[in-house]
Amino acid sequence: MPATPAIYARISQDRGGEGLGTQRQLADCRAEAERRGWPAPVEYVDDDTSAYSGKVRPQYRAMLDAIRAGDVDAVVVWHMDRLHRRPIELEEFADTCTRAGVKDVVTLHGEFDLGSGDGLLVARLMAAVAANESDAKSRRTKRKQRELAERGLPSGGGMRPFGFTPDRLHLDEAEAATIRTLASRLLAGEPLVSLVRWLQDSDIHTVTGKEWRTTTVRNLLLSPRIAGLREHQGQVIGKAAWPAIITEEDHARIVALLKDPARRTNRSARAYLLSGLLRCGKCGSKMVTGRSRDRRRYMCRTGPDFGGCGGTMISASVEELVAEAVLYRLDTPELAAAIDGQQRKDENSAALSESIAADAAQLEELAGLYAAKAITGPEWVTARTAIDARLKANRARQASQAGSTALAGHIGNASALRREWPQTNLSRQVPIVRALISHITIHPGTPGVRTIDPARVGITWRV
Ligand SMILES: [Zn+2]
Question: In this structure, which residues have their CB less than 5 angstroms from ion ligand 1?
């Protein structure tokens, strides 16, 4: 008969409502010790911890120490899962008991002699079952998440996403309109910093009421959610149950654009409308921007970094002249015809869209097969890799065609643009100018003449 038995009791949160409070466990265990005619046991009680969470249980550790020290020679526990939920813990416990010669380990749901092979085996099995229960909980959560994803439903949690109502299934129309504006301005070539400035100027905030930053705008526009797509673990797995704010095609172009490694992030807005577009009429070098006698100018510069002849300079007021030419050009039938012709030439762009759609559909199908367990995870990944590569390449090509978007809505409608032009942000003007103009040759001026002679400005139109 043991001389100094111990009782171990523990409250865990995962089985609330099953009458497993420590008082109940202790009462049952005391009754068991008494029934066996054992002396009054020492009681070890841990409160409010799930053994599986890996948190330290001070009283459990104290009991192990007492067993090692020979101060405890028997243990009564209500159920083995009160003692440990992880198999590794059981091993430690069994080892400690074996070394200390403790053979009486009693549970109210079965009795083990941990010193014998069978007792340990049963205990191990029970610990494995207990561990599995905890695993099952997290598996259930994961399965639930996957089910929601497969049905295109939102997963909930956290703040509502910008553009959507709190149920995440309907649009917040005002915010959705903001997203559409951001998307089209980005596709028209406007940098993120400028979009952020626009949001600030328009007094539009994030759902938490904070100011937008380039990173938050970037994440918003990259999110497949705004194209009505459901993402699960970083992969788009199909159509979502909520409406799209922008088209999948536009979203694909945005992704290609923002993930283009050549793209410099956080670049500051330009100060010169025509930087990089002017060529020296004498030597053909690119003219650079700068100030001279406190006036903004474009000039051909000599020196190792520039390599020009230094013979041409023109006042930045050439910008007004070029802007005027651009606005005029936008209203000409020739441009409409040229754009029209280019679109026909871009029939392959339609083929590109089709190929992208087909690949996206195939990815969706694969995800479905994986979800239905018709293929394994590795098979899914293998099949996906090839399609992903092709998709990426096609989306990059699509993004490179995005330049023509800068002109969308402006052709034949230049009068509205003309009215807005003086107030229009430079970063919106630049893409429009660059979409139309290949380069501009600046011919040498007559010394002493202050106004710009339009004959000096030779525009080479792109379309
Ligand atoms: Zn030159």
Answer: 280, 282-283, 285, 300, 308-309
Residue 148 lies in a domain: no
Q: Is residue 157 part of a domain?
A: no
> For the chain, how many residues are written?
463
Does the pLDDT of residue 242 top 90, yes or no? yes
Radius of gyration of the chain (CA): 36
Q: How confident is the model at residue 341 (pLDDT cuts 50, 70, 90)?
A: low
The residue from 138, 155, 172 where one domain ends is: 138
Q: Which domain holds residue 60?
A: 5-138
Q: What is the secondary structure of 229-285 as a DSSP string?
A: EEEETTEEEEE-SSPPSS-HHHHHHHHHHHT-TTPPTTPPPPS-TTTTTEEETTT-P
Q: How many angstroms is it from 277 CA to the middle of ligand 1?
A: 14
Q: Is the pTM of this model over 0.70?
A: no
State in Å: Cα 455 to ligand 1 middle. 17
Contact 417, 327 (CB under 8 A): yes
Is 111 part of any domain?
yes
The pLDDT of 227-254, averaged and rounded, is 89
